[in-house]
Amino acid sequence: MISTNIDGLFNERFFQNFLPIPASNEIKIGAIAPDFLITDVKNQRQVRLLEYRDKQPVLLYFTRIFTEHQYCPLCYPHIIALNENYEEFQKLGVEVLTIASTDIKQSQRVIEDLGLKMPLLSDPSCFYGGLYHVGQALGAPLPAQFLVDREGKIQYRHLFSFLSPNAPVEILLNIAARYKSISKSELQLIAN
């Protein structure tokens, strides 16, 4: 699935976001996750992070997809593994929101080609990657994962490094299990 064809790679986004910016630790564990409003191409709707507050935890997954045919070789296996485990996250009551810098047309092709089950949010300006300080290089944000709990607080953060480009799916599932959705009646039972 990873292509060596560079057609379409050298687009406006590539040149606007060409210079490498390293990921930073500016967003701290326990901080309220920055809100966003991004197009979910898979489900053809606008997604706002605030919608999930008091409802369910969310795993934000920033991935590097350069065009509909060009995937980061470090991110491609990770997006496949997350997609294969999407139902496991769903069973825990955790939504997985994949954020890519592909435009809507490219994102539609990615969804089709990979058989994506999880939502794919289109951020072609790379604005939201910047908002989360994930870093960037060659026109795409660096990979990163954030687990946002029901209160909207970041409880886990994994930022790109060459030693560990993405958090292993097993670790993400274990962390998601800690913050799984609990119904209001279950919360009342715990509180009593």
UniProtKB/TrEMBL annotation:
Residues 27-181 form the Thioredoxin domain. This is Alkyl hydroperoxide reductase. The keyword Oxidoreductase applies. It comes from the Bacteria. GO terms for molecular function: peroxidase activity. Keywords: Antioxidant, Oxidoreductase, Peroxidase, Redox-active center. The keyword Oxidoreductase applies. It comes from Merismopedia glauca CCAP 1448/3.
